[in-house]
Specification:
The complex is a heterodimer. By secondary structure, chain A is an alpha/beta fold. Helix content of chain A is 39%, strand content 23%. Chain B is 70% helix and 2% strand. Chain B contains 15 helices and four strands. In chain B, the strands form two sheets. A two-stranded antiparallel ribbon of chain B has the order 1-4. In chain B, β2 and β3 form a beta hairpin. Classes of the chains: A alpha/beta, B mainly alpha.
């Protein structure tokens, strides 16, 4: 069977939409407690990969295993119950709820109330509400969003909404966190905050994190392994240093053979 | 917007207090006091044992009707306002509740107190069946699918089930009884209908501030994200249909026993649309929306428009010669109603409940503007 240190194993998955091949036999595995970055030019298939892991897309070939268990055929909500949480590239919060309620909504899988007990809101249902509120408040403290907890998220700035979304993913108490461009569209300070949060989460909770990011400097700084994808094909995998030197990666980003020291310019080119 | 504004000096000291409906002692006294005053109204009317005539007895009947529709629209609020699934078949669900309750009482001699929950359950299951298309379709297409309920159910009641339902003719309904007390008068039914409306409104409010309610709102706001956050979207859509239909069933059954007769014409498409209009006018997705919307629409239809007609009777035939003076009420009622709805959609699209929130915040911040 699987190596017990492997948290997530993407076993050569292929995904196509009609004639378009979004992913072709992409395979890699993520060790427990690792931060793995997935990079690639726009349209390379990174988000399709995340969507296949969460179950929004079903790859036609290949398998996805979480802790050695095949989850390829589970619907998204069951995968969430197994400990997969994600954020979205284009923020997908519950726009009309407060930040607090967005996080509380993510406690769904840890709560038990059904329509009947909820309607009475007495005893266990009420206690459960308060106990989960305490957990959510810890996350609110951690992400430094006390002052916005009762603001409707539709009224928040872009950077704060990204933070609420990270909070919502954390409220699920996942064992595998998938971050789809957590820093896209942020300014330098917001990016630094977000990087700090990601590293803190990783350190404190030993969480396994897979992230997609275009900011190469950041990817190289915080990730332990990097998987590079282009046109739905995995072109390279390795430590950040190996990836910087990889000729396929450089080719994918710059379109021609260049000197490795240009790798730092990759981000500018990719945007 | 910010529901967290408190009057200056009022602080929540625990999460329990933060999530409570009545956060302060004043809130508690106010809401309990209001309920007691409401319950005293029939005693003060001419029907009451004291023989006082402070409250016109017409009011009691109007309050009963308002409360019945509040129950139905609370259900619609859960389904459409919170879960975002449009239903054009709500009146048909009321019909199921009304006829089930009536038939159980007539044919099986079942007591009202048992017929009511059975009618609610039956309606809930019917709602579940008509909620199945929500697996596949959303928005307008779902509205079309629920429209099917609005045509199939009355047709079933009118033709195939005619031996039980009396078809197009009204069906008599027995009077509810409890330990020999008969609930024939409006003033007596008041004590069944009002507590039911209060209880069910509280139940709706509680569902919506708990795990289940947040799941429903998640489905409305972003069903893709909800699914990936561990919520079984389809189950919650069906739950919304079930609960909404149950509320409609209870409202239908109460209306049958309130008027002691059921007639199909009161459960047709126009009634479904009227209930959607009530929800929009009151504020979809606000706990108080159904109360405001139903009160406004029913007062408009039953008190304001009838009061407007006599003075207009002298003027209008000259102004609108194409309307037969005999039909003036029938012609003007939908006209004024439509106008009110249009004005609301333009100037107050988030409903009266939203206005109310703004007024409350302004009041709490007084004398400061923000």
């Amino acid at each position: 069977m699987e190596d017990s240190t492997v948290k997530l194993h993407v076993d050569n998955i292929s995904l196509s939409f009609g004639g378009i091949k979004a992913l072709q036999s992409v395979g890699f595995s993520v060790q427990h407690g690792q931060i793995v970055a997935v990079i690639g030019p726009n349209g390379a298939g990174k988000t399709s990969l995340i969507n296949s892991i969460t179950g929004f897309y079903r790859p036609q070939i290949g398998a996805i295993r979480l802790d050695g268990v095949d989850i390829t055929h589970l619907p998204p909500y069951k995968r969430a119950q197994l400990g997969i949480a994600r954020t979205f590239q284009n923020i997908a919060l519950y726009t009309n709820m407060t930040a607090l309620d967005n996080l509380m909504a993510a406690r769904h899988i840890h709560m038990k109330a059904n329509a009947l007990t909820a309607a009475l809101f007495y005893g266990p249902a009420r206690r459960e509400e308060i106990a989960n509120r305490e957990r959510v408040e810890e996350i609110i403290d951690f992400l430094e969003m006390e002052n916005i907890r009762k603001t409707i998220v539709g009224n928040l700035s872009y950077g704060l909404r990204k933070r609420v979304e990270l909070g919502r993913a954390l409220a699920l108490e996942p064992s595998l966190l998938l971050l789809d461009e957590p820093m896209a569209g942020m300014n330098v300070e917001e990016k630094e905050d977000m990087a700090r949060f990601i590293l803190d989460i990783h350190e404190r909770q030993k969480m396994t994190i897979v992230l997609i990011e275009h900011d190469m400097g950041l990817v190289m700084d915080i990730s332990q392994r990097v998987v590079a994808i282009d046109f739905g094909i995995k072109i390279a995998e390795g430590t950040p240093d190996e990836i910087k030197q990889d000729e396929h990666v450089i080719k994918a980003y710059l379109g021609q053979e260049v000197q490795p020291e240009n790798a730092a310019d990759l981000q500018a080119v990719s945007e | 917007m910010s529901a967290n504004i408190r009057p200056s000096g009022v602080f929540d000291t625990s999460y329990a207090q933060d999530i409570a409906l009545n956060r302060t002692r004043t809130d508690k006294w106010l809401s309990n006091g209001l309920f007691v005053v409401l319950l005293l109204l029939p005693l003060l009317s001419s029907e009451g044992p004291l023989g006082l005539n402070i409250v016109p007895s017409l009011w009691i009947g109007t309050l009963n009707r308002i409360a019945i529709f509040v129950i139905a629209v609370q259900g619609l609020n859960i389904l459409t306002g919170y879960c975002g699934q449009i239903s054009l078949g709500h009146a048909a669900f009321m019909a199921i509740g009304a006829y089930t309750g009536a038939i159980l009482g007539r044919e099986l001699g079942m007591t009202f107190w048992l017929a009511l929950p059975v009618a609610a359950l039956v309606t809930g299951i019917v709602g579940l069946i008509f909620g199945l298309p929500s697996l596949r379709v959303k928005g307008f297409y779902l509205a079309m699918a629920t429209l099917a309920a609005q045509f199939i159910i009355p047709w079933l009641l009118r033709y195939p089930l005619e031996p039980l339902t009396n078809g197009s003719r009204p069906l008599d309904v027995p009077v509810p009884n409890l330990f020999g007390i008969s609930f024939a008068a409006d003033g007596a039914m008041f004590y069944i209908i009002i507590p039911a409306a209060v209880f069910l409104s509280l139940a709706a409010r509680n569902i919506l501030r708990s795990r289940v309610g947040r799941a429903l709102i998640s489905v409305r706001d972003n069903d893709i994200a909800a699914e990936q956050m561990g919520i079984n979207v389809f189950n919650y859509k069906l739950l919304a249909f079930f609960v909404a239909a149950m509320f409609a069933g209870i409202a239908g059954c109460l209306s049958a026993y309130n008027t002691n007769s059921v007639s199909l014409d009161t459960f047709l498409l126009d009634q479904s649309i009227a209930m959607l209009a009530m929800l929009v006018i009151g504020g979809a997705g606000y706990p108080l929306g159904p109360l405001f919307g139903v009160t406004f629409v029913l007062l408009l239809q039953q008190i304001i428009i009838p009061a407007l007609i006599p003075p207009l009777n002298n003027v209008l035939p000259g102004l609108l010669p194409f309307i037969n003076p005999v039909n003036i009420y029938a012609a003007l009622s939908p006209l004024i109603f439509g106008l009110a709805l249009a004005i609301f959609l333009v100037f107050n699209p988030r409903g009266l409940a939203h206005r109310w929130e703004i007024i409350k915040i302004a009041w709490k911040l007084r004398p400061f503007s923000h």
